[in-house]
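Design request, tokens follow.
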């Protein structure tokens, strides 16, 4: 990639049905605008096949760089290599590709995002510290085959297993979506009336679970602890109100770091395989202070 005064930059988004994705897109659009770069934006609308086609179309349009948030960690690997073979560098944002299928530094420039395993561990650590006796957990998983669903499960489950004395009653995908999360929580709460913890892999499913608990006549945050990842305003407000108990932030504001990395890469800077975002968390003690700066 040659250093230029302006670039045509592709951004292949995963979906737009939740505030996290909208905040990520806005951050990318704002930074492109600020720099005077042209952004070629696509939205896969929750379809991995469409995202593969979106990346191919960016390659055909010969954009300078492709920013990609791969919906799933395996099916996007081939198009990352197609872009590389066409001489178009790819920078992975937020979600990763299975490391067995594509390598940083050769197939793509670098991965910028949160450490999803650590996010799951942080939720588990909070629960271990704040547990009130016998904890029976329902886990709402993210999109099957996505790096955040795989890693948030691994980080949490491993830490919980190691601590001992906790039971994961059921673990099922709610596809990172509010209504699906609500439906799955409803079914799992009926099957497991002794559940007293819901761990959702993102806010949207956690908010769905809060509705499911209220519909079942249980007090979210009191009868059943609700734990989540993302840290959007609506969820942080629920921590303030006591309907959720703990939320780990996953920062969606990628624009500044993403475009800085593109500029550095064009000047020959070498990047590590991963550039990891530092995220805060929201507890009943800190949520009120953090609310105004949540996305
Ligand atoms: C993970 C993730 C979630 C978010 C979801 C929505 O990549 O960022 O934290 O809620 O995707 O698409």
């Amino acid at each position: 990639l040659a250093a230029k005064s302006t670039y045509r930059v592709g951004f292949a988004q995963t979906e737009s049905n939740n505030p996290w994705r909208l905040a990520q897109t806005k951050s990318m659009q704002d930074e492109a605008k600020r720099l005077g770069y042209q952004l070629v934006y696509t939205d896969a609308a929750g379809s991995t096949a469409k995202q593969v086609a979106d990346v191919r179309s960016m390659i055909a349009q010969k954009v300078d760089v492709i920013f990609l948030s791969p919906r799933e960690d395996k099916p996007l690997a081939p198009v990352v290599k197609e872009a590389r073979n066409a001489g178009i560098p790819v920078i992975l944002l937020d979600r990763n590709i299975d490391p067995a299928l594509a390598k940083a530094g050769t197939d793509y420039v670098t991965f910028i995002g949160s450490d999803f395993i650590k996010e799951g561990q942080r939720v588990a650590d909070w629960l271990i510290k704040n547990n009130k006796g016998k904890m029976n957990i329902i886990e709402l998983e993210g999109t099957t085959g996505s790096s955040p669903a795989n890693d948030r499960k691994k980080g949490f489950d491993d830490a919980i297993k190691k601590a001992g004395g906790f039971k994961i009653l059921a673990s099922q995908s709610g596809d990172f979506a509010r209504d699906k999360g609500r439906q799955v929580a409803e079914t799992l709460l009926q099957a497991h009336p002794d559940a007293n913890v819901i761990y959702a892999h993102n806010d949207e499913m956690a908010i769905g679970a809060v509705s499911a608990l209220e519909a079942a006549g249980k007090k979210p945050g009191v009868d059943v602890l609700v734990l989540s990842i993302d840290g959007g305003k609506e969820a942080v407000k629920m921590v303030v109100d006591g309907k959720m108990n703990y939320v780990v932030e996953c920062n969606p504001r990628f624009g500044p770091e993403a475009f800085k990395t593109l500029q550095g890469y064009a000047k020959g800077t070498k990047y590590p395989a991963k550039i990891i975002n530092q995220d805060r968390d929201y507890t009943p003690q800190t949520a009120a202070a953090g609310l105004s700066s949540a996305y």
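Comment from the thread starter after seeing the answer: thanks! The chain has a mean pLDDT of 97.
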